Task: inverse folding
DNA sequence: GCTGCAAACTTGTACGTACAAGCTACATGA
DNA sequence: TCATGTAGCTTGTACGTACAAGTTTGCAGC
């Protein structure tokens, strides 16, 4: 938080308030002029914060009406788990460690192209299984370049939220991602981990996360059990 | 195009130029000041156009460097087909009509919740199969509320691009979407249409497209063969 | 030759103004 | 009572200024 900008501070405050139910789902946020007055910022700056909340799917803006709270889902709304129509909250989400973080070299034929900087840095690797209400839904293989992340393997405990840890410890925030998605079939390893039979359909996803650190990217290869929960995302909403 | 705004005009021009290879992949666009001067717009307005190109994944902006062309993928970069790392261009994409557009009532238990407005309007329904180089990759079931779309069933030919048709005929543009994704298994119908065996894994996707018309949404239920081509998307990139 | 610094670019942040356009609620008039 | 229109709210668009901060380039000095 050393050099957070004004609009980021407001963005973070509003996001926290939305997640903490200060504003109910479907209700309107204070108007841009009200926020501008109460936070002592110009309307332009307020609009910048709201715009980010909108592209991340937390609110919908409507001309003449206001900014309406749309979703409380976390992690950028890029692709998160949903039951019927309700996003799964953190309360029902558990994380199990399969392999603790370890420092190694990058795998050969890595699933994304790496820069020389990343190649040289070496790679931190760990594996987690995510469950919703005791049901395993995601087998996640994460790779991080070891770039200016002091004491990572000592500090990070797999049970805690990874993104939250990055934010609190290093001021790193995920701001976007590229991903590739396939329909695949569970092999023995995946079937065991996700409580499926060999041959059951699973989602295979390769992800490259973008962060607020200019050249730092995080990588994930994951398999999802979508028997009970679908993956969901929202995008766009830039135009009128 | 009756009332396109300045930034939308610039946005459309730049997007067209990117897709038409005026700017090569990896090269930098003219700077904000140059665009501002050449288009006779303020820098703020230019930034608004560039910002939209960025959130849709066409460019990446870098402080001190410029706006770098990142991708030529179409359809908002929300979720499009990719081979190894190259987006599939329109040249290799064919569309086959399975069911021509017909006006009917909405299916019972529709996969998204409908407003009263939509319920009352009735529904246009058609089915297409998309192929890349003769390989069927997508079975698409599209539903549209019949709201102020005169002569739709007469005018729309399934062979043409649906989004392009909407833009040219009604000035409707897709500006975002919500979607739910599952890994599933091909039944006989889907297997036949996609050239798969029964039991092969497929992606099942429900989509709700948002348009520039305030209360008009388009709906799609689709099945994808991801044997050769993955689905891909980019999101975010709002922050520094 | 080469190091290092400064100038000249780039985008990012923050402020401000003005008016357009959509929505709502209330008052006015038939 | 009820329709209508207007006042007052909302966000959207477009312009402008100023300075911060990252990147590149090239020149001066060693």
Result:
């Amino acid at each position: 938080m050393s050099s957070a900008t004004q609009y980021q501070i407001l963005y973070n405050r509003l996001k926290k308030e939305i997640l903490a139910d200060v504003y109910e789902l479907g209700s309107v946020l204070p108007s841009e002029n009200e926020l501008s007055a109460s936070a002592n910022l110009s309307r332009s700056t307020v609009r910048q914060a709201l715009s980010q909340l909108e592209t991340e799917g937390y609110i919908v803006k409507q001309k003449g009406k206001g900014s309406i709270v749309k979703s409380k889902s976390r992690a950028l709304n890029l692709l998160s788990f949903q039951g019927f129509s309700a996003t799964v909250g953190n309360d029902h989400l558990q994380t199990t460690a399969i392999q603790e973080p370890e420092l190694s070299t990058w795998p050969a034929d890595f699933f994304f192209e790496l820069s020389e900087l990343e190649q040289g840095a070496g790679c931190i690797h760990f594996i987690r299984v995510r469950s919703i209400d005791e049901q395993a839904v995601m087998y996640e293989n994460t790779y991080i370049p070891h770039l200016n992340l002091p004491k990572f393997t000592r500090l990070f405990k797999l049970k805690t939220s990874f993104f939250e840890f990055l934010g609190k410890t290093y001021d790193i925030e995920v701001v976007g991602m590229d991903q590739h998605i396939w329909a695949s079939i569970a092999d023995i390893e995946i079937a065991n981990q996700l409580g499926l039979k060999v041959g059951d359909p699973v989602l295979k996803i390769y992800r490259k996360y973008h962060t607020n650190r200019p050249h730092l990217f995080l990588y994930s290869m994951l398999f999802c059990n979508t028997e009970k929960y679908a993956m969901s995302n929202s995008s766009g909403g830039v135009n009128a």
User: Anything to note?
Assistant: Chain A touches chain B through 46 residues (CB under 8 Å). Strands of chain A lie at 59-62, 66-69, 80-82, 93-104, 123-132, 135-145, 174-185, 201-211, 217-224, 230-236.
